[in-house]
Amino acid sequence: MSQDFSQRMNELPEGWLQAMGVTITLATQDEVRAELRVGTEHLQGYGIVHGGVHCGLIESLASIGAALFAMPRGQHVVGLENNTSFIRAVRAGAKLKAVSTPITRGRRTQVWEARVLDEKDQVVATGRVRLLCIENDQALAGEQVQGVLHPGT
Amino acid sequence: MSQDFSQRMNELPEGWLQAMGVTITLATQDEVRAELRVGTEHLQGYGIVHGGVHCGLIESLASIGAALFAMPRGQHVVGLENNTSFIRAVRAGAKLKAVSTPITRGRRTQVWEARVLDEKDQVVATGRVRLLCIENDQALAGEQVQGVLHPGT
Amino acid sequence: MSQDFSQRMNELPEGWLQAMGVTITLATQDEVRAELRVGTEHLQGYGIVHGGVHCGLIESLASIGAALFAMPRGQHVVGLENNTSFIRAVRAGAKLKAVSTPITRGRRTQVWEARVLDEKDQVVATGRVRLLCIENDQALAGEQVQGVLHPGT
Amino acid sequence: MSQDFSQRMNELPEGWLQAMGVTITLATQDEVRAELRVGTEHLQGYGIVHGGVHCGLIESLASIGAALFAMPRGQHVVGLENNTSFIRAVRAGAKLKAVSTPITRGRRTQVWEARVLDEKDQVVATGRVRLLCIENDQALAGEQVQGVLHPGT
Q1: Any idea what the CATH number is for the domain that residue C48 is in?
Q2: How far apart are CA C114 and CA C112, in angstroms?
Q3: Between chain D's N and C termini, which has fewer beta carbons within 10 Å?
Q4: Tens digits of residue pLDDT in A36-78
Q5: Minimal-distance CA residue of chain D relative to B83
């Protein structure tokens, strides 16, 4: 059974996950899960959950899983592509769950899929994320990578 | 020249755009633009802008443009698909701009593309959004649609 | 158990499926399957299967399933979006299988996912297709739709 | 002006481009163009061009451009992701053109977009392809890469 890093993710003092009120409930290199109570910060103009929230949830879970798989290999990951299909409209007050699992975890790239579900376990959104694996000694955006999941941080 | 609804969008008291600090700078049925100063609420664990922010910006701009085109036709829109490519990593402090234009604006569906640019006008992310056009007298998520852009609201 | 239309699909005298040597092995409104022996007509310049073959297989299976679901409802379908991830390179001589199942089958749109597998059941490609449902009395490309799966043809 | 390799592409004795009757009209590292006369081999069951043809055209053009850019750097490319939006239905007899240009051409990955146009220059389909750049001394599908565009072939 692979190690669960969810507590460390939730202790982050700031970031998109915190701004969006996302709680990571499982964070392993084989599966990542999260929960979210829909509030006004998640809505678009029609009063339903903004598509960017679903994309972002899917991106987060895929990235965490891929990063956890890459970490012991001396790699980190960076998202390349996110494609998300919106299946059902969701309104404020609803509780969402999301789960992500890998399709491929290679040395060069990984692909993870993720689904967002409502309280009846109906699919609300589904998507895939492609991530590039980068050796830790290579720069990202001009700096060495030092992520929350990396040794020493 | 089509009417600019950007002021009305920015006066919204709450929602994802407000939570993410996005300012709409142009909102017409032909083009939509926005700006964003990157803060901690936009970051993922490695300290760069979360992919979900780019997806969400692209989703917002496409949706606003498509809604403005649909409105005088007695329609509203709902996002079906969002695919976003991440091109360059962006760190806190950066100022982002985004612009969206239509690829097709049909009676049944619309497709808008959008690009997120940094201060040097380099492409940071790019994507397309497919939206379904729905007659206003048809329900969405079990309720009649009453959006901020709709007559009487 | 929903009716299997695979024989009728394979009897088509011409079309992309025939040009690509695809055999439909199951065609129901709940699941669609196909097989393909990789020949030179499927290859790109490096000698591996062209990505368009995977996209096309995924498109075919999703479209057949969605059309079969739409048919008894007096609807036909048209593809809106196809996103496909390439997972493993495949060379000539390999035998590929593909299977597609629905994610959502609504009155307005459907989403089907599909996977292409090699002889070891390893995922070679995976994708999703979004399709628009259109009432049969509405025109497509300027003509009434008369598909191979429609009554009277 | 970058070198045009279109003649070499069209002299290929076999492959998907030949099976689909595609003529490459420009092949440089900055832009790739192709033409296609729609025949029965491009059609799906409703008698319109199969979505896989559009995906495949977009995949081809993006891949050729990316490969030409990668070649002088001692790299080849492999497609990771293809997302294609279908805009207009096309029937047999129509003449299609396609054009692809780069969005980013990095050392690790490239992104190219492409559009398929009809005779009135209306957009018929549009998409993006993400490609991974691989050093030529690294294996693909268990063999050294020897493509039609590589030195010595």
Answers
A1: 3.10.129.10
A2: 7
A3: N
A4: 999 999 999 889 999 999 999 999 999 999 999 999 999 999 9
A5: D83
